[in-house]
Amino acid sequence: MASAHSGSDLKSAAPAPSASTGVEIGVVVCTFNRATRLRFALESLRTQSLPPSRFAVTLVDDGSNDDTPAVSAEYKSRLTNLTVLRQDNRGLGAAREAGWRSCPAPLIGFLDDDAIAPPNWLEKLLAIFAQAAPSIACVGGPVEGDWEVPPPPWLDADLARWLTVWTLGTKPVTSRDDMLFAGANMTIRRQALEAVGGFDQTLGRKGLSLLSHEESELWQRLRLAGWLSHFAPDLPVRHFVPAARLRPSWFRRRLFWEGISVARRETKPTSSPRWWRAAKLSLRALVSHQVRSHLLQPRQWRRSIHWQCHVAFKLGYARGMLTR
Predict the structure, then answer these.
(1) How big is the chain by its Cα radius of gyration, in Å?
(2) pTM for the predicted model, two decimal places
């Protein structure tokens, strides 16, 4: 539950422009083999209402082997404030780390390569940070679905968040405890990133894997260091949802990797035997509320996507625990 704070947390604290460039805010776009969608993301930055002299864009090509280099070259001539970095496929955490460290700005926005920002996105961000308390490290906004096909009837809000489609409502919220942003639409103070050492480069999507949590792991360290996060309801972006992700099989795979991601975050190497770790995991699973409730309704097993996702998560978590 978010611990909301009053307007006393919102004081004049506009970050100073970069002393060397005069840039007030930067945007990092990390991409891997999404040339078609990347074009829409970069176009949404090209058409920002904020003058180009006041912001910078850093595109990190994480080892793409499609037409991404051609799209990058095209927008290098159309976006005068665009810098293109190319690296081997090291994963999203490493790409975000390289991006913000190369972006000369006191505020670093992160936009997914399959997301579209509205024309006033950067102007609104600057206005929000101009009124934000210095302790607010991260600002996020709603992520709306840009659906390739109509969503299926079984897709509810709980499942949609795994597609990075979510919101926290219509009122601003500030929290000392909860992560009030998603990776597709988050802006972080450079000072905060520097204070905690940036992103964990072992986390985040890499190749075809769905490994996650590079942004939530970062938030955990920011929170422990005393920073706050803020949700701005009037700061949406649109996030593309392809038809291939609207199938139960994709959700099972997504939750399997979620389990692996959680296990990697919360555990350290151990000397205990694998059989002992497996026994403890099995016992914890058998006594969980989800398992006990579904054991009484075996006919629902195949029809319940939530149950399938729960099982997939547990299997991924077990794999992550047993292979550490």
Answers:
(1) 20
(2) 0.85
